[in-house]
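Two proteins were folded this term; both appear here.
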Amino acid sequence: MATPNLPTPSDARPEVTGFFDGQTNTISYVVRDPASCACAIVDSVMDIDYAAGRIAFEHADRIIEHVRRHGLEVEWLIETHVHADHLSAAPYLQQELGGRIGIGERIVQVQDTFGKVFNEGTEFQRDGSQFDWLFADGDRYRIGTMEAFAMHTPGHTPACMTHVVGNAAFVGDTLFMPDGGTARADFPGGDARTLYRSTRRILALPEDTRLFMCHDYGPGGRDIRWETTVAEQRAQNIHVHDGAGEDDFVRMRSERDATLSMPRLILPSLQVNMRAGHLPPADDSGRRFLKLPIDAL
């Protein structure tokens, strides 16, 4: 069944290579058009030693090496949402490989919310202009010969988007692997009922659609995995399998979220990611700082 009011997924089968970051349990992807050298990079990671205040690009360099070794041309650097658990390496990758940085158009809502949390001045633009492209629900774009489209799937954050590329969909934090369920919905702008409805929208895609997760934590000690299908999620997802009701989900998600602590990297991540992966501007001495707001979250 096709998702209502959105393009029908194409028959293209992109080549998808995942890059797992063990420090943040994040999976970044290189999504290649099999009919050309064009590719997109989804949800990249910049390394940070938070205690020492040092950043590095080992994870991003693995992606760069892969792209260059296979002679690929980067057309897009996609952020599925403003991540709260890792920092984006999109500007570094863009500098090295090119491509346009894109995120959902509701980034402006996230920027407004967290611009206030971090007491950013008027020089911090809250219009999404730090990104090269803002995706609206249903927007079509191309990766080489492949047609892709963006679905607005909020609930975890207001700006969450799922990107459907041929028979593959990159769901961000909306869904986890079936034994992991779904992401939390208690961040500012999140909403459990909205999240449930977003999951049903994803699970209305064709059953053989490949779904790629942004995170996996290996529940029960199993090996890390990041690829599943719509059919598998509908049959087995512990939170939103077929027959799981909306009210029961909202109750479960709300109770569970109340027990969760904030992600370890939420404060640096939000400050960087709402700027499209750029660090805050340097002060008069040329040094850059990340803020630590007290009792703000």
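Next, the second protein.
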Amino acid sequence: MDIADIATGDYVEVDAEERLGKIRSLFERENPRGIIVTDDGEYAGVIGQRQLVQSHVEDDTKAESLLVSAPKVERTDDVREVARVLVEGGTKVAPVFEAGRLWGIVTTNAILEAVLDHLDALTVEAIYTEDVVTVTEDTNIGRAINLLREHSISRVPVLDDAGLLSGILTTHDIVNVVIRDMDKTTVGERAGGNDRILDIPVYDEMASPVATTSLDESVDRSVERMLENDYTGLVVTPEDDDRKVEGILTKTDVLRALTYTEEEHMDVQITNVNLLDNISRDAIRTDIENVVDKYQKMQVRHSHVRFHEHKEKLRGTPLIQCQIRLRTTKGQMAGSGEGYGAKQAFNVALDKLERNVLELKGVQSDEEYRGQLLRKLGEL
């Protein structure tokens, strides 16, 4: 199935010289998944809500300074491949080209609507994210913004003093409060206004009650509710307690599931693939497979590598953080590390992953030996 029928020529476009103030107002009025930025009529990149969550950026800033390079796709590209590049590009919209010219866009919602009938065989448990970043009700907006950036996520569950689910804070909520405050302040008050935004507790801006799902709910039902209510994700809770957080299911999780393959080699999803300056996707996949092979009884269901660029640089090479996460038959395995350049960061993270895998292998072996010994003693 290709995207010819789900791509659209109806999209919001701005010039690279457009002011950020105008772009913020476009998001407020039209709530687009992303805005296409062009330079002299040529495609330059996209701006999404994640790029707007920078309260220190002034309204006079030009669009070209905030745009990100979303992956280009063709109208005849396969849905699974487009889902993969959207996940790896960390965007909700991709520019669609035809005969070398910008034709339109394709969005995550359009893809999910097209494949909805094929998701009934999947349950939330098979694809949800278990490791959830959370905040408390008194966490300030500034800290929440840093967490969203650091983990490349768009939402965080809010917990009360008892550690129970109280609300949800999304990138959309933060963009709304930034725009609302910008409307209230004058130019001379702008800096002070930004500080006030950062100090607001998330309790004042979170959404409550929270839309939830359970591990045994079918993915098609969860996605249908997301699309109907314009949610980007649902908090996963036990059936008997909708205030205990077990995980989160996002549209990105569902897109990632569409890319699963039956090929012999491991399928690795990479977030911020544009940072791969000195290492290839194949090298990453091969190195992770070599680590996994050291514990033959462990099978990988899904692998995810995320790169994050810091501002610090060494002789022009940025400091990169790399996180490797594996969902396996033995539970979740992870490794993280930092280095100058993607390759160095990945190698540090891979080393930690390998140590964790070998440690798990040793623990499992000890437990198996202990079980065998107890059985022999029982026979005596």
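The mean pLDDT is 85. The first strand starts at residue 13 and ends at 15. These notes refer to the second protein only.
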